[in-house]
Amino acid sequence: MSFARWAIVTVPLFVLLGGLSGVLSNSGLANHWYAQLTKPDIMPPGWAFGVIWTILYALMGLAVAAILDARGARGRALALGIFTAQFVLNLLWSPLFFGAHQAHFAVFLLAIILVAAVATTFAFAPIRRNAAWLMVPYLAWLCIALALAYQIDHLNPNAAHLGTVAGTAHING
User: Fold this and answer.
1) Mean per-residue pLDDT for 46-74?
2) What is the CATH number of the domain that holds 99?
3) What is the domain range of residue 28?
4) What pLDDT score does 93 carry?
5) Neighbours of 146 (CB within 10 A)
6) Counting Cβ atoms within 10 Å, is residue 65 exposed (0-12), middle (13-18) or buried (19+)?
7) Model's pTM, two decimal places?
8) Confidence at 164, pLDDT banded by 50, 70, 90
9) What is the mean pLDDT of residues 62-86?
């Protein structure tokens, strides 16, 4: 299978899986719990997250297509294994944050995803340098996302309990 044939499968697959993770966990501004959170001043507008993640999932799909196309390359199976692990963790982040309201644990999960994505990038580099470069925007965004998640967790120390008791008010202090 050629790179283009792999990409026709991997790009839509990763965009679809990433989108499903967000939709099934009710991510974004429509999430009542998320809407109540105090956000950091550097928070991008809500619409930007969908655009950014669509691009990043597409780039990941292209990177994986390049690695899949490198049949017989040394380290290919390991690189794909590390990628798969970090991608599964990535898909778990939205359910943990938006669905389970676990802002604190989501920060730690993002740190683990970042480490795994760095490992993936280094594993991709000797196989296909362009695949490693396609991961760089993802790494940059993970750093930004980690900073945002940390600030949200810091600004909302009781986020897990926000809105869970009917008739109570949440006061940021």
Assistant:
1) 96
2) 1.20.1260.100
3) 3-161
4) 98
5) 18
6) buried
7) 0.91
8) low
9) 97
Count of the separate structural domains present in the chain: 1
**Domain assignment present for 38:** yes
Q: Is residue 168 part of a domain?
A: no
Q: Given this model, what pLDDT does residue 168 score?
A: 44
- What does the pLDDT look like over 51-64, one tens digit per residue? 999 999 999 999 99
130 touches 121 (CB < 8 A): no
Distance in angstroms (rounded) separating the CA atoms of residues 93 and 122: 23
Sign of CA dihedral 81, 84, 90, 92: negative
- Rounded to an integer, what distance in angstroms lies between the CA atom of residue 127 and that of residue 133? 12
Q: Which two tokens stand for residue 36?
A: 């109540």
Handedness of CA 69, 70, 72, 77 (dihedral sign): negative
User: By C-alpha distance, which of 18, 126, 14, 13 is closest to 79?
Assistant: 126
Residue 11 within any structural domain of the chain:
yes
Rounded distance, CA 17 to CA 10, Å?
10
Residue 172 maps to a domain: no
